[in-house]
Amino acid sequence: MLPTWGSSDGWGGNRARAALALKFFPNGISDADIATQTADNGSTLATKANDVRAMFWGWTTDVSKGTSPISISDYSVFKQGLSVSKYSNVRADGGQTSNTEFPDMDVPFMRVAEAYLTYAEAVLRGGAAVDGYTAMQAVNAIRNRAHATPYLASEITLDVLRDEWCREFYFEGRRRMDLIRFDSYGGSDYTWDWKGGTKAGTKFNVIYNLMPIPSTDLAANPNLVQNPGY
């Protein structure tokens, strides 16, 4: 019988940094919380978070795993920090997968949640609401689906929306561009653990908001100018 993640081989990917875990668990996670986890792909940590998007797994604290279940004091230690159980090889219709070792799930090019959050951000940045549909309504459409507490209109700010992008799209490969758009990446005092290569997080140069243009491209096209700082 296959595990509930639909594969005979579990994924050994990166752990969530504490900054991500704290988006769902602002008061942290205790060893007692870890002890409530179920032995499958889902976790009762989502119940503690009051948000079904909190798909994590953790280990109890010991000397080798940092000072708390969510902390990473040494990123070379595999079991430090929460692992992410967001992905699996289980079909939505319950059917048999074509391969039990390698995932064969579809990869969406755009999710409905992206449309809602993009709309909310556009309104917060000064765009006109369509038919009176507010940024709060757009964000709460996502939070209601996640069984999370809805926001009040007075609570919707760009900082709140930046965190909502994180809660919805973590580990989907877009956090860097979201942080750049919110002026929270290079040159910003907005930090997270291991930002800039230090445990506490440190500010780094704004030049890293842009990637360098490859030297082969520069040689092939004399009209190109290298981005500042490279």
Strand and helix map with partners:
Blueprint: H1 18-24, H2 31-34, H3 45-49, E1 56-57, E2 83-84, H4 112-124, H5 135-145, H6 158-169, H7 175-181, H8 215-220
Antiparallel strand pairs: 1-2
Helix pairs in contact: 4-5, 4-6
Q: Can you put this structure into words, describing what you see?
A:
- The chain has 230 residues and is mainly alpha-helical.
- The protein has eight helices and two strands, in the order H-H-H-E-E-H-H-H-H-H.
- The chain has helices at residues 18-24, 31-34, 45-49, 112-124, 135-145, 158-169, 175-181, 215-220, and strands spanning 56-57, 83-84.
- Helix 4 (112-124) packs antiparallel against helix 5 (135-145) and helix 4 runs antiparallel to helix 6 (158-169).
- The protein is globular, with a radius of gyration of 20 Å.
List its salient traits:
single chain; 230 residues; mainly alpha; two-stranded antiparallel ribbon; 8 helices; 2 strands
- Domain module tally: 2
Q: What characterizes the major β-sheet?
A: 2 strands, antiparallel
**Helical proportion, percent range:** 25-40%
Classify the oligomer.
single chain
Overall pLDDT level: 89
Overall SS class: mainly alpha
Portion in strands: under 5%
* Uncertain residue ranges: none
Number of strands: 2
Provide a brief overview of the structure.
The protein is mainly α and 230 residues long.
